[in-house]
Amino acid sequence: MQFVFRRRWLRTALTCLLACAFVRPALAAEPDPITADAPLRWYRGNLHTHSLWSDGNDFPEMIAEWYRTHGYQFLALSDHNVLSAGERWMSWSRIEKRGHPEALKKYLARFGEHWVETRGDRTQDTLEVRLKPLDEFRHLVEERGQFLMIPSEELSDAVDGKPLHINIANVQELIQPLGGATMREAMAADLRAVEEQERQSGKPLLAHLNHPNFYWAVTAEDIAAVINERFVEVYNGHTGVNNDGDEHRAGMEEIWDIANTLRIAELNAAPLMGLATDDSHHYDGAQEQRPGRGWIMVRARHLTPDSLVRAIKAGDFYASTGVTLTDVRYDATSRTVSLEIEPQADAEFTTRFIGTPRNAPLEGKDRTDGAGAALDTTKKYSPEIGRTFAEVKGASATYQLTGEELYIRAIVTSSLAHPDPSLAGQLQQAWTQPVGWSLKTDATPSQ
Q1: Could you give phi then psi for residue 362, rounded to 5 degrees?
Q2: How many CA atoms lie within 13 A of 80 on its CB side?
Q3: 113-121 CB contacts, 8 Å cutoff, 24+ apart
Q4: Which of 9, 226, 229, 379 is an S-S bond match for 364, by CB 3.0 to 4.6 Å?
């Protein structure tokens, strides 16, 4: 009996010891990011990014890791006319030609040989690396309420040799470019395909026009005419997209104001909202098209693709290249725009409230080159279009519409330089969306 008792005692003690060994020590409770009364909060994200699936030079997991660890809450990998889906292998020699020779070494160091799949022999120039699809790698990088991947594509179309690129966020199936006889026809056809997928899938999709000044392809008049397009990049971090225009052609802010003026005053259509994006291709630090230059801040209750897209479509977001706004409000009753700016080191802030008077002339004139020949580009309009109605210094700014304005938007400029500029002399900025506008069929402001 004594032997049996001791054996039972030892078995019980051993069981307790093993159980205790697998009990994790109590941790301090962290706030749950998902609550029944979820408040509105700002989420930072980029909707224009490229990987090895098209013309980027790094693996999608590595790109997602960069954004996740640099203060972003959502990311869309938007490769050209392809979704990161299905089985795909890429030769190492082809990857090396993208100018990122350390890509595989860093990929292996971060995720390990148990995750990175290769085949072939590097010494025989037969080495290939498997590109992981989104539905496989997203589980490694997404965090509940903290970081999210949004399925996306850059629909890349062309008309008479001019590029037409439209990013589609929250896409469910690949949408092919449809083309057209003119830029406007192609844009309208591609947007109808997006709307059709929305209807069939029951999911909200976001289509935004990319870098209109890339090869000077899309004019303000084109953008104004295709009223189904509601979103355009007012800033793109790629160094080759002519954000600021040149001595003969309009920059993106001027194009934005011209298009919005024509829409409201002539076409009785809602204005475009402006985004800032990276359009990043290079992740080795040495080449030009780097991440972290431009983003959007979206105010939503939940970090889900549908919630973010719906908030963006409602205009509850702003674009930024470094300035952070803690609040942006438009009171339709008092017709007042107000915003609060987060202090940053010793930065000084200037807010300009920009719009177009209702009586501004709307006739455009052809622009010409240095030899006086007409250019196929956005026309030249009155300086009243996109004029500054007020300028305010400081960390808060307010503007009350008088009824003279077709719309008002704000741009906040910091005295601090952009840490990785794509433009000469670039300062950090933020752009709010146009408000105070109304349509002829609706006497009350639409936003």
Answers
A1: -110, 5
A2: 14
A3: 115/140, 119/89
A4: 379
- Cα distance between residue 423 and residue 134, in whole Å: 32
Length in residues, the chain: 447
- Amino acid symbol at 122: R
pLDDT digits (tens, 9 = 90+) for 139-177: 999 999 999 999 999 999 999 999 999 999 999 999 999
pLDDT, tens only, 47-79: 999 999 999 999 999 999 999 999 999 999 999
Q: How many CB atoms lie within 10 A of CB 426?
A: 18
- Which residue shows structure tokens 């059709």? 196
Q: How confident is the model at residue 433 (pLDDT cuts 50, 70, 90)?
A: very high
Beta partners for 368? Answer: 374
Instruction: Please count the other Cβ atoms lying within 10 Å of the Cβ belonging to residue 109.
Output: 10
Residue 223 is encoded by which pair of tokens? 């953008």
Given a contact cutoff of 8 angstroms between Cβ atoms, the answer to whether 361 and 384 are in contact is yes
Give, in degrees to the nearest 5, the angle at Cα 230 between 229 and 232: 90
Q: Which of 202, 206, 161, 174 is nearest to 48 (CA)?
A: 206
| Cα–Cα–Cα angle for 312, 316, 322, rounded to 5 degrees | 90
Supply angle C-alpha 282, 284, 288, rounded to 5: 45
On whether the CB atoms of residues 319 and 296 are closer than 8 A, the answer is yes
Bridge partners (DSSP) listed for residue 167 = 154, 208
DSSP state of 335: T
What is the C-alpha separation between 200 and 223, in angstroms, rounded? 26
Tokens of 407: 């719309």
What CA–CA distance (Å, rounded) separates 43 from 295?
Answer: 10
**Is 27 a residue whose pLDDT tops 90?**
no
Q: Which residues contact 396 (CB under 8 A, 6 or more apart)?
A: 338, 339, 340, 341
